[in-house]
Amino acid sequence: MKILFLTSRFPYPLEKGDKLRAYEFIKHLSKHHQIILLALNEKKITQSQLQQLQPYCEEIIVEEISRLNSFINLLKNIIGYLPFSVVYFFRRSVYERIQLEIEKHKPDHIFCHLIRMSEYVAHVDNIPKTLDYMDAFSTGMTRLSEQSSGIKRFLYNMEQKRLEQYEQRIFPCFNHHTIISKQDRDLIPVEEKLKIHIVPNGVDLAFFAPQQSEKKYDLLFAGNMNYPPNIESVLFIAQKILPLVKQKLPNIKLVVAGANPSSKIKELQSENIDVTGWVDDIRPYFSQSKIMLAPMLISIGMQNKILQGMAMKIPCIITQLANNAIEASNGTEVIIANTAEEFANAIIDLLNNESKQNEIAENAFTFVNKNYTWQAMTEKLNALFSGSGNLANETKDTTPNTTPITTPITTQQ
Description:
By secondary structure, the chain is an alpha/beta fold. 42% of the residues lie in helices and 15% in strands.
């Protein structure tokens, strides 16, 4: 089968969750299908980046979009009704290019990664299409709004309303729909939400394998450090959790490892906190840390960092919100904490109990190996593409394509 795969970012390097999901889907789908990748990107792609995807793609088309034009689009549509996240990534020239590529390749299926790309193919009614929502983005905007104030809160509220309406309007334009977790599926504001197939993220078990290293750090937080939920989590650790832990363990050491740390995160660098910035390989920080923290307070979707930590046999202390998508067992595969006091107590108890650390790490390792492989997740997509759609505990979506939701956006350029 020939699949046209559309994504709003070139899926390499893998510093963002959406890029990781797209990359792994392409990698594993290519074992059974021909992949034509069309990706947007705000920066020029290097040859080395292209080489990471070339083994899996019959053809790669990269459409560069400038950030300046994206902001001009936002300004032109400030009074409109389409989500800013859709407008930001839309270009008339890209729309026309996609139509040309469809005519040229005549794909058997179109896979649209993220709702922000759906406007490009909403009007295509002669080719089966799958929309990967990944996360419930409208709910994500609600949570960001609750943590913001002033103009930011106003804009997040506006985007939340637009996304919620758009998630409903775009639904009937696709044959199949996928999302990362049951939690996110239940938050999509459509009556037929049970027709959305749950396709979680996986973890590369060959890459994120346990390593023996000297433990330089007590605690680890990993992730893209310019992403608001991650920033919020690290500030919560530094300002709320660590002061409580230091009362009993004054030499506690936290490492914050991840790309693009914001100024707020850089300012945390201290005797007790090490902020790394971009690292070529995150695995040494997993293996050199005793405990991984994921106090996600406004997160949606699935936290790849948790799966990766579990795969590397690092015990994880996480919020219930972070565990909703993963569904690990509290006290055996992860430790769940929701307040600063609960986190502090769990950290102190675990650091003073090495056998408990090892027990949770082993249970977590078994859990991800059983439940979260990319190969198994991609087989769910293969079932959809083949028309069987017989995914466990899910209802097959038989909704046909209908009249397009709107004429294509005309802002540019």
